[in-house]
Amino acid sequence: MKLLFQFFSPAKKTNKKQGLETFGGVYTPSTLTILGVIMYLRFGWVVGNAGLMGAILIVILANSITFFTALSVCAIATDRIIRTGGAYYMISRSLGIETGGAVGIPLYFAQALSVALYTIGFAESVVAAFPMLNLNQLYIALVVTIGVGIISITSAKIAIKAQYFIMAAIAVSLLSFYFGYPVEEVNVEMWVTDREPFWAVFAVFFPAVTGIMAGVNMSGDLRDPIRSLPIGTLAAVGTGFLIYITLPIFLAMRANGSTLIAEPLIMQRMALWGPAISVGVWGATLSSAIGSILGAPRILQALARDGILPTWMRFLGQGSGPDDEPKIGTLVTFVIALAAVCIGDLNLIAPILTMFFLTTYLVLNISAGVEGVLNSPSFRPSFRVHWLFSWLGAIGCLGVMFLIDTIATCVAGVVVISIYFWVRQRELSATWGDVRRGVWMAVLRMAILQTDHTNDTKNWRPQFLVLSGAPTKRWPLIQLAQALTYNRGLITVSSVLPVGSRDVARQAILEKRIRDYLQRRGVKALVRLVTAPDPFDGAERLVETYGLGSIVPNTILLGDSQQATHRKRYCQMIANFHKAQRNVIVLRENPDLLYNPWKESKNRRCHIDVWWSGGRQGNGSLMLVLAYLLCSNPQWRKGKIHLKLVVTDESAVKEAQQNLGKLVQDLRIGATSEVILSNGRNFTTILEQSSIGADFVFLGMPSPDKSFVPNYEKLQQWTKALPTIIFVLAAPEFNFHEVLGEN
């Protein structure tokens, strides 16, 4: 009762901006679009093929989907001010500018071309009504389109007033029908199963109950959209339902099913005054044309203002007068409609246009459903709707789309997805937030809570904490992390700042600069900066505290220490990482060699040497896993892993070859085994001679102990003549042998 009182009560005089009221701006265009041509020309066919009860069931099912969508619209409309653009504005502010553009652009063309559809339909009915005059259908359609265009360009208020007369004509035609009489002796058929399939009949009828967007598209012209949209939309849906639920009863009681199917204008024969039905058909087509030519330019205006259209089309966002009417957009829409009328036959694209309207309803339901499920503090609609109704509406829309035309549904889907990626690749920045971050946060929360702290060899992959400092200075560290993860693992680029060098605010700005730099270089990574009196202390603090629940970096990637004065503290830091159950990878590059594997490897077969020490646990298995991940990257997919082992005794060569060959075969990583006899040479000489031409050389580090510093220096000495070296120290209590999954 409160809604009805608000709906029919006169508006109070306020100092608000001028605009359309609920009745003229929402209820009238929505009702007229719902009560369209299908009601006059196809409802008898529906009753004849489905029977009375079947037709009533179809009406209830179809209106339920529309009602759920209307509820979703009301929820979104009462949460925020809906400005120009209607459905596009709602979707873009909820699901993001890309999704809004993907739906908004097709919706605009669907609305613009619908003007031609309705005016051509009007012309066809006039020609059929006056065959003796030999009228030209094209000329009539052009004249009507021009008239509709002039009305809409002149003023939206004038167009709305014209719709009042059309509504009166439709009301007269319905009254004439209700007070009419039977055309023959009737045997009422409650259910019919031997004619058209139920869902085929449903598909024909469903477009009759669409049209609630006619009022939503006028959102920017409403005086109070938060109040008007829910009241006017629900009132229009209710009006349409009451009319559609009663019409089958009158049709079934006045003519038999065969007559209802054979005569599209059977309502004219039943009516008290037959010509009133013709006037109603003309009014329905004209009202739909006016609604489309009013709604389409406002969608175009919003698309231009949000920057979705190309820069040279930004002028389409201009508005005129105190009501900000899109006169330029209306003129463009008028030209498109005229061109479509000249083509004449729009039957081929009509189903796809219907799909675009249904896609809009589908996405609106999804928007409200997602907002309802997330229940974010920012989503506080005054018209509360349970998220289940929105999801039911979405499922219903998707099902109806396939029922009406599967091919048109697929074509519309391809168009929407293509536009989505086109808008996305332009990297538009929006000044508003949307629900996507909330969705990812919900998924992230669920994933974190579902992931325990136990070691999982089945799903292990490196999650990197890269101690790079300034990314520009040690960019190869980030390149290596990206190559080893290839968008499958997490990378955190970190740096330790001196105490007092940055306050919290400036530190946040620096983090953003680094993120932007990484993004420009095509690297998807997190960024973490900390301040500490000493860079080694800061790195240890990062490893100790950084992460969320069980989601912590399991692999620390850092550069080699070239300064002898820092060597002891550097090795102590590695030992502390090892104690913290982290894998440690040290990238050592030779500055005296100009060869760069990151560039050269694109044009040559990558050569990777893994020096095996004979142990299947720890370093050896981790090195093979990392080498395999490197070769899994498309940039190094042609790479070859060479697993090398040095033996000192010639009698052990054969057995070593057999064991190493079996290991390679069992591991299934496409490696080549190579056993090298030392022949009195030291390991340094063998390493230099064997790996001088390799792109990457993997060497295991000894476990940290009291002699770790001299052992690390020994590794540095061994590799001083080699290009790119990767030192590996595996976490002490993780079984990488199971990660390899040896048979």
Describe this structure in words.
Residues 475-592 form the SLC12A transporter C-terminal domain. This is Na-K-Cl cotransporter. The chain crosses the membrane at residues 20-41, 53-78, 99-118, 138-155, 162-179, 199-219, 231-252, 272-296, 352-370, 391-423. With 743 residues, this protein is of the alpha/beta class. It contains 29 helices and 10 strands. It has helices spanning 2-8, 22-34, 37-41, 43-77, 87-95, 97-129, 137-154, 156-178, 198-205, 213-216, 225-254, 257-262, 266-270, 275-305, 327-343, 350-374, 387-404, 406-425, 436-450, 475-485, 504-520, 535-545, 567-579, 597-600, 619-632, 653-667, 683-691, 708-718, 736-740; strands at 464-467, 491-498, 526-532, 555-559, 583-589, 607-611, 640-647, 672-677, 696-700, 724-729. Helix 6 crosses helix 15, helix 7 packs across helix 8 and helix 22 packs parallel to helix 23 (567-579). The longest helix has 35 residues, at 43-77.
